[in-house]
Amino acid sequence: MPAxxxxxxxxxxxxxxxxxxxxxxxxxxxxxxxxYAAGQAAAAxxxxxxxxxxxxxxxxxxxxxxxxxxxxxxxxAVRAAAEHGRRRGxxxxxTAIEHAAVLxxxxxxxxxxxEVTYLKPDRAxxxxxxxxxxxxxxxxxxxxxxxVNNELGTLQPVAQAAQAIRDAGSPxxxxxxxxxxxxxxxxxxxxxxxxxxxxxxxxxRAPKGIGVQYIRKGLxxxxxxxxxxxxxxxxxxxxxxxxxxxxxxxxxxxxxxxxARISALKEYALESLSALPGLEIVSxxxxxxxxxxxxxxxxxxxxxxxxSDLGVYVSSGSACHKGKPSxxxxxxxxxxxTLMGVLRISFGPDNTRxxxxxxxDGLRQITxxxxxx
Length: 373
Ligand code: PLP
Known about the structure:
Elements: E1 3-4, H1 15-26, H2 37-57, E2 64-67, H3 70-84, E3 91-95, H4 100-111, E4 115-119, H5 129-135, E5 140-144, H6 158-167, E6 173-177, H7 189-192, E7 196-200, E8 211-215, H8 241-253, H9 258-274, E9 280-283, E10 290-294, H10 300-309, E11 312-313, E12 320-321, E13 324-325, H11 327-331, H12 336-340, E14 342-346, H13 353-369
Parallel strand pairs: 1-11, 3-4, 3-5, 5-6, 6-7
Antiparallel strand pairs: 2-8, 7-8, 9-10, 10-14, 12-13
The chain binds pyridoxal-5'-phosphate.
């Protein structure tokens, strides 16, 4: 078994989710829009699954729309918020460390004439609410701030952002990409005070191809897809019943003590990794499952490939795209040698100390057999 330490990229589907998907595909395969019994049973199951996700998230099931992935939800939120506020203004605030699923649609709006303020993180990887306060304008229509950064594991001050928006009396909508936060850190959309929130199933042991969008009750957003009127008319298209069943099963199977267990493993990893000569901790991560380290002088792409040969999987993936350091690490202002040697390590409930030991041994072997640049 490889030591899979890239759970922020995706996770292995848990047996409960796989079983639920199989059952939905082979037994409960009716179209939820069909009027006969098999269809109505499928519709009832989708309703139960929506309720299961809502219980975990702490919201009303009617506030949830199933989507295909986090990218879809992020894109929808950005575009729908712009449309929602189109008569009021064309200013957007987001952070310099958002996922591309937020940054790219924001960029597309900028190309259409929207002004964008990017909040910069401090050296620790957190943005400041004071800067947000200063950036809010009368014509601000959207603030988009992630809950947990996917490369650093740092928590962003989303609840404080909501308070700042309220204090300013601004009608700007607040969107939160909580793809890396759901089930890892405690929150509810209401306690965060957000209008829209985006989740993705494959980060929490459900399959790829399912996401969830929270839209606060009372907020009228433009539908994402027009057609048969499924998902309360917000996202037409026959419901992906297998993925929905699997997502609900993965939520139900997520045990209360997972975050503490994962966090303890991360602490063990950080302690073990610190013994490697030259290793720098870039981010310990506030969230239990993500941290980032660097071996200055050893390019991340080389480390990822060499570790892979030893059966250890970590990421430079979003950390280093096509040889270019990621916008997130670049935004921290790290020295170039540190920047080029960054690795993101991310944990899930299946990981063990043996996985961490394999990583540390692997890095020791690689650095012993190669000279640093
Ligand atoms: N937002 C964050 C913070 C992520 O980490 C990811 C995935 O890496 C996404 C959005 C995109 O999610 P998906 O892969 O489901 O499109």
